[in-house]
Amino acid sequence: MTGIIDEIRADLEAAADEKTQAGLTRFFKEEIKLYGVKTAQVTKISKSHFAQVKDLSKDDIFALCEELLESGYQEEAVIAANWSYRINKRYKPGDFAVFERWVERYIDNWAKCDTLCNHTVGTFMEQYPDHVECLKTWTRSENRWVKRAAAVSLIVPAKKGEFLTDIFEIADSLLLDSDDMVQKGYGWLLKEASHEHQSEVFDYVLRNKAVMPRTSLRYAIEKMPQEMRKKAMEK
To answer: What does 8-61 look like in DSSP terms, one character per residue?
Structure first.
C-alpha cells in the first residue's frame, strides 16, 4: 500500500507551483505544509488513485488515510478526507473512535477541520445519531480544532433541519469561547440551522446576544432578512 502513497506524493509534487502555494498560504494565520496544488487538481489526483484502493478493506483504506494525515500536508489531508467519505456506506459505530483520533492528532487548521468534519464525521452522525453525545464532549477539549470540529461536524445535517436541539446545546457549550476559530465554527452552524429553523435560531440569538461574541452573532444571522439582522445587531 505504501506504493500508492508514493504515487500520490509524486503526482502532487508534479502538480505543485509556487504561485498556488503563495496564494493558499494567505488564507491561514498558522504555518501550514503545502505542496501548492490547486483544489481541482487535488480532487483529480484523489479520484484517480481511489480507483486503485476502492476494493480494499475499510481498515486498509483508513490506514492509508491516516498515513496521508500523518504527513501534515494540506493536500494529503484533503485526499484522506475525500477517501474516508467515499466509503461512508461501510461506516460502523466503532468508526467514531477512528475519526476522533484523526481530529485530535492531525487537525491543525480550519481547512483540515472543515474538510474532514463536514462530510466524513457529518455523514457518520446522520447514520448513527446517538453518537452526537460523543460529539458534545469535544466542546470541552482544550484543543481549538476539536472544539471547532464539534460544531462543523453538524453543518450538513443542520442544512437539512436535523439535530436542532443538539446544535443549540453545542452552541451553549461554545458560547463564550474566546477563540475566533471556535466562534466562527458555531456561528456557521447556527447559520446553516437557520435555513430550516429561522425563527428558532433567531430567538436563540436574541436570548444570547448580550454575551455572544459579535463574530459568532454575525455568522449566525448572515442569511436572515435585513430586519431580523438589524434587530439582532442592536445593542
So the answer is: HHHHHHHH--HHHHHHHHTT-SS--B-----HHHHHHHHHHHHHHHTTS-HHHH
